[in-house]
TrEMBL record:
Record keywords, A-Z: DNA-binding, Phosphoprotein, Transcription, Transcription regulation, Two-component regulatory system
UniProt xrefs under Pfam families: Response_reg (PF00072), Trans_reg_C (PF00486)
Location of the OmpR/PhoB-type domain: 136-236
Name of the featured protein: Response regulator
Organism: Uliginosibacterium paludis
Length: 243
């Protein structure tokens, strides 16, 4: 029988730390708590955890510094919790290695969904790591199949959707980085590995065109979602299909 995922909640506010631990426990998660970086380091040194929920504003060593340590030395997923809603703060946390960023006050059910999303991505990454990148010929997601060799997008009904060269590169970038928030700058960096440059001003319009081809309702997208202030998120379970 699979053991429950172990979560470490690091927050100096008892009125947040204790209720959150109790709530997560109701979802089958095993939770430990720490009030600051010192306690966090002590627990991580003697116990295994699958994910850390880390408050940014902590006494002593702050959450961003702690996040960098966990990312660089332990490789454990981190979700940052903060009362700061400034997009620049969120981007700073993500660049330091955080896997997600939740602004207080938050709905605990949303936090559970984000935790589960990270675990799903980890399992998918583990499966895909068994396949060498050069062996991948297609990506399957939702009702679609992206054929890399043919540069085609095909629906489950067999219908082929025409993609421009830029749309193909954009979609490939999204499926290869599924369930990860990508800023416009990061998208450009990933897409510009080919010979034809993509300009910043075209990213939003290309995403809009791609939505019209992928989504049942482009005004309410389910796959290619906007992460307001941060960029875009391709929300899908993607399976890499080897040659």
């Amino acid at each position: 029988m699979q053991s429950p995922a172990r979560i470490l909640v690091v927050d100096d506010h008892e009125d947040i730390r204790a209720p959150l631990a109790a709530f997560l426990g109701r979802y089958g998660l095993e939770v430990s708590t720490a009030v600051d970086g010192r306690q966090m380091h002590a627990l991580l040194a003697r116990e295994h955890f699958d994910l850390v929920l880390l408050d940014v504003m902590l006494p002593g060593e702050d959450g961003l510094s702690l996040c960098r340590h966990v990312h660089e030395h332990l490789g454990i997923p981190v979700i940052l919790l903060t009362a700061m809603a400034d997009p620049a703060d969120r981007i700073a946390g993500l660049e330091l290695g955080a896997d997600d960023y939740v602004v207080k006050p938050f709905d605990p059910r949303e936090l559970v969904a984000r935790i589960r999303g990270i675990f799903r991505r980890m399992k998918l990454s583990q499966r895909q790591s068994r396949v060498l990148p050069e062996q991948i010929s297609r990506y399957a997601f939702g009702n679609w199949l992206l054929d890399l060799a043919r540069r085609e997008l095909r629906g489950n009904d067999g219908q082929i959707v025409e993609l421009s060269a830029t749309e193909f590169r954009l979609l490939r970038t999204f499926v290869e980085n599924a369930n990860t928030v990508l800023s416009r700058e990061k998208l450009l960096d990933l897409m510009n590995r080919g010979d034809a440059p993509v300009f910043d001003r075209s990213v939003d319009s290309q995403v809009s065109r791609l939505r019209k081809k992928l989504e049942d309702d482009a005004r309410h997208p389910r796959l290619l979602r906007t992460a307001w202030g941060d960029g875009y998120l391709f929300s899908a379970s993607v399976e890499a299909v080897p040659s």
